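Re: the 716-residue chain
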Amino acid sequence: MMMRRWAEFVLAHRRWVVAFWALVLVAGAMASGPANERLTTDFSLPGEPGAETAERIEERFGSGGSTAPYLVSFTAPDGADAADGAEGSAAAFDEVGRALPDVRLLHAGNTGDDAFLTEDGRTSFALLFWRWDESATGLPTEQIRAALEAAAPAGASVGVTGYDALAAGSEEEEGWGVLAEVLVGSVGALAVLAFVFASLLAFLPLVVAAASILATFVLLLGLTYLGEFSALVSFLIALIGLGVAIDYSLLLVTRWREERHHGRDNHDAVRVAMQTAGRAVLVSGGTVAIGLISLLVLPVPFMRSVGIAGALIPLASVAATLSLTPALLGGIGPRVDWPRVRRERTASRAWTAWATRVVRARWAAAGASVAILAALVGAFFGLRIGLASTESLAQNGPAYEALHQLTDGGVVPGHLTPVEVLVSSGEAEAVAGELARVDGIDRALVPTDEASNRDGETVIALIPDAETVDSTSVDVVDRVAERAGDLDGVLGVSGVGAVQLDFMDAVYGNFLLMLALIALLTYVLLVRAFRSLLLPLKAVLLNLLSLGAAYGLVVLFWQYGYGSDAVFGIPETGAITFWVPLLIFAFLYGLSMDYEVFILARIREEYEATGSTDQAVVQGIGRTGRLVTSAALILFLAFAALAASPATDLKVMATGLGFGILLDATIIRSLLTPALVSLFGTWNWYLPDWTARLLRVAPSRPAAAEPEPRPVRTAT
């Protein structure tokens, strides 16, 4: 009744509703720019030992701590004297340090280490620790390059590389940008909608999506004045918001059209669509929001910010779908439903036939689905958490060339991710000597310049044999921290590897708590929605199984490289960046649950009309199969557009979400869900009185004797 009353209110004030959303569009267009400018790139982990040391280093020395250094180099021309080149490079690096404020440079001149030279003697390099700017929208590579070129010895060429420069992608390929990605996703979505509706109605969900996205930016701008929010949010709002809003509007418009083709007048069709599909949209939005709000459990500010800001996406999508969509349908809906090529009076013949076969072979369908998913979940157990290897980052461009000039010259890759140790200055040499003997450490660097020695404290740098980028290679950081704990004068251990260890302890140590919270909240919400104890349990378990399978595909595709090289030209990453699995989980959990809600809501409706579980499954899939497949394809296209970003981490996240959506819409919702609902029979529809009273819903009892399935009308 609540949805019907709301529909009547919107229909009675539809012009005001449309005017309100027109104002939102204008305000959103004005707010998106300022909102993006106020987003930050802060990945700090307050309270963790590595993070606290990093913060102390940043405050005292102005650079480094939690970030990887840049490797900067001078390469002398052929025939130049190696000794003269090394001496000139040391002076040039000092000049670079003076030209760039608040940086630390470690090189042969201020460490006394002669290993800052390639084997051929032509290239001298240094570690440059940059000051971290949380509000920066780009990397400082050009600023660093300009300082190097100004100080370069006569005839020398310069190089700038480092993990961040490589992770940003090739400098020759800047990517499409958020706006271009949204436009590409919109064009793909319009093609799918044109197939679904075969009329001008295809444009209506896009209008609703635009209103939803811009409304989200208005809300985000307000939130940025209350706290800091990650720059990742901008991508998520634009592309996930596009897919979610279109999916919700697609569901509502499809049901309105079905009711219209059954002979209802326009406003009555809107009311029925809101009572049925609108209710499903409300529940779906709740499940997506729960998945994102669960990130608040994690003691990581940037993850919490993604959770809070990300939850705006389903909230704005639901608001736009349940107000702007019925307002437009109640006014111009019949006029834009032209030409009427496709009819919705009956269920899809193809999907009805498919559901009938699944119900008849439900044991085989369930067994085959579980076997496929179990195989993919098995691959998930090989997951390595960390950072992508440098070989899987930029494949061309100046950063790539500068790195390979160094590594080809015998420079160990551990320079990309040194371990920084903060010590009392009087103990620096002794501590460095002890830690240099830790297994996996190539050498220890003790800088003597003022930039690395202040107020009685010194930052020494330990160079690992290999880059510390994943859960196996960071073991050396653990060994360093353990040994450092026994030494006098050590104030803390930090660096990229230490931050990874902090993140894994803080986040994945609390993951089970987050999982339990999200599963419980989702279960309660779905019990109220479906008035069943078993259907929500099945939905939650299948969602977790779907997520595990999606992770397995990510591991195979990216970590082991079975696809990344062929599709993106990127070799195996060796690991998945530590924050990516969490964001995939938070978004995919709710997004994939959307389809479960769409399908089960219709199956429940059909069961109440027929009293037959099998008939409800066949009719429910016949009615929702094309809808769910189209909705999944729209989201997949949005993620495909996001995968066009040059940054490898965004590609990994986008493909992970895309894999999950496709798996969910095919194996899970089109095969396993109807098979299991058919197998469970009358147990699907049981909700005891005490539970119903507790949740303030009507109890549910299965039909005493289910009738034989009758033929289902299909579309011609």
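Residues 377 and 549 are 5 Å apart (CA to CA).
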